[in-house]
Amino acid sequence: MAESAEGLGTIPEHERILQEIESTDTACVGPTLRSVYDDQPNAHKKFMEKLDACIRNHDKEIEKMCNFHHQGFVDAITELLKVRTDAEKLKVQVTDTNRRFQDAGKEVIVQTEDIIRCRIQQRNITTVVEKLQLCLPVLEMYSKLKEQMSAKRYYSALKTMEQLENVYFPRVSQYRFCQLMIENLPKLRENIKEISMSDLKDFLESIRKHSDKIGETAMKQAHQQKTFSVALQKQNNIKFGKNMRINNDRILEERNEIVLKHALEEEDENEEEVLTVQDLVDFSPVYRCLHIHSVLGSEETFENYYRKQRKKQARLVLQPQSNMHETVDGYRRYFTQIVGFFVVEDHILHVTQGLVTRAYTDELWNMALSKIIAVLRAHSSYCTDPDLVLELKNLIVIFADTLQGYGFPVNRLFDLLFEIRDQYNETLLKKWAGVFRDIFEEDNYSPIPVVSEEEYKIVISKFPFQDPDLEKQSFPKKFPMSQSVPHIYIQVKEFIYASLKFSESLHRSSTEIDDMLRKSTNLLLTRTLNSCLLNLIRKPHIGLTELVQIIINTTHLEQACKYLEDFITNITNISQETVHTTRLYGLSTFKDARHAAEGEIYTKLNQKIDEFVQLADYDWTMSEPDGRASGYLMDLINFLRSIFQVFTHLPGKVAQTACMSACQHLSTSLMQMLLDSELKQISMGAVQQFNLDVIQCELFASSEPVPGFQGDTLQLAFIDLRQLLDLFMVWDWSTYLADYGQPASKYLRVNPNTALTLLEKVHRGMKDTSKKNNIFAQFRKNDRDKQKLIETVVKQLRSLVNGMSQHT
């Protein structure tokens, strides 16, 4: 009964599920079907039975519906087949009727047109015969107009048209042919207008083709004029004693005389060849077209057309080639076309009235200037060659000076040059980064040897080095810096020269040029040279000797910065005492590099110490010491002595820091060796041998390997080891435990945890030794007493360690 009741309750649920499946989207059926499996165990079987019954019901309904509509569908198809036959017959009849109507209508149309044509001809002939005498003067004048048109005497033709309209046409205005003539006159005027416009188009095409030549000629003349003016100004400055430089007066004077001579020669050569825009372009089509349109009263239309076409040409001219940035010729072609365009517009402005106006040219120039700046900004960003950027700058200056000579404002172009200057400096910095890397790679990092006075003077001429002690020494002798120092100094000066080249002709004051040079030089020092130095210092193959030489080199380069400032001052003639003068940041640059080199020295020195320490091969179970220090330690000390001899050229503080760092690292390494967790036991013989090695370290520290330490400062690096070893060698545990925590304690630097760790290792070593020697009965009691003492000390040390941890 329970099962049947349960089954009855399940059937409505199954019906609900089936309804949900039929009315729900297929993608959402999953959760519904899952509920069938989540119910009672036999629910799935019952659901399937219910589903089959539902399917059978639907099949029956489909079959009933098909049977009900089948006969109607068959009847409809039969009706359609009958209608198709009748429709085809009707279509044939309609087509035939239409054809017969068309054939009959053609004959009527032809006859009607013939009749109309004959009547018109008869009427026209009669009118012409009757009125021919009246119309002959008009026809003669019109014939004259045709002859003038054929002879391309368009202005005379326009005057004849005015006579026909004002005198002759009113006499015969009632006749058809007069109306035709009257109607034809606008066509003739339009024809004249089209011919003149065709000439104008040819003119526009001509100036488009000749824009390169026009612009090239204009830029060449502007460049020659500027070159002559600059050379003449320099010559005058030399005569009046201006811009004189120490040790460079004669060179500057000779150079400027040569420049002036060349400029005068070029001026003489080109004096007879000076071409104007009228010599290159025939402007008569423009004048003729403008005059014709003025007579026709469509001057405004002509002006609008001309301006529209020129704006289109301007857009074409302003559109650069995609590879323009690859060569300077691409930029030159771009500039000459633009200059040619605006030179023509300036000429049209001054020789015509109203065709172009100053407002129009200014608007056109502002539009062009924005496009030019955008193009140059985009294409110059692709330039990676500083020489190409410099040539681009020179072209922009000539371009700007040329157009400025024609009255166009070019301040924005010079503002753009400041942006390009930053990019030029970036390309210079990248180029000089490679130069510095090559210098560092070729350097041997050893002092520069000189064997004669000539070699000494050559080095002095390249680098400002002053050392009275070195001058007094006899040959051969060595400079303290390596070969890279004078090379870098020369390259920095070359960079300043290269940076100065961009600053020329920018119409900037000496103060601004001085500021530019100092800022770009600071970038070279703080970013490029500093980066190259840091990369060099971090290279794995750079050893301690090379690092020492690098520190010496940076010291001399830092001292040379004041000479670089004097060098810039001599170029710009701006005193360093000026309030707004930027200082060179060489001090901080080379100081940072020196600090990095010092840190690398400390690191490499510690790594070398670790390599020696890894060679240590102690026998931690030896019963007696060897009586001499370990071989690896003596090799390490000899290595440190030789290295610290090299450090004598370093500043005292650096050498002392390196020495102290090395001793502290060695002390730490030895302490870690004793406390190594993998080392389980140590014999007293091994402790004594280890003590001999520490004594050698202390002797090395007391020998003052680097001068400048006060007292036993360097020996304090090993004080922790010394007190720990003394505690074990003397076995003075009572004193250690009694004085622990007091400032005057003999073993103040011994940590209880360290002492406990080492004591446990020694204790295990003693136990092992006692087991081996247990055949000697007379020593058993002494061993037991010593072990009890050790166990007591261990307990006390542990209590100290626990007390320290709780206090912490």
UniProtKB/TrEMBL annotation:
GO terms for biological process: Golgi to plasma membrane transport; intracellular protein transport; vesicle tethering involved in exocytosis. Residues 413-761 form the Exocyst complex subunit EXOC6/Sec15 C-terminal domain. Residues 50-219 form the Exocyst complex component EXOC6/Sec15 N-terminal domain. One of its GO terms (cellular component) is exocyst. It comes from the Eukaryota. InterPro entries: EXOC6/Sec15 (IPR007225), EXOC6/Sec15_C (IPR046361), EXOC6/Sec15_C_dom1 (IPR042045), EXOC6_Sec15_N (IPR048359), EXOC6PINT-1/Sec15/Tip20_C_dom2 (IPR042044). Signal peptide: none annotated. Belongs to the SEC15 family. This is Exocyst complex component. It comes from Trichechus manatus latirostris (Florida manatee). The gene is EXOC6.
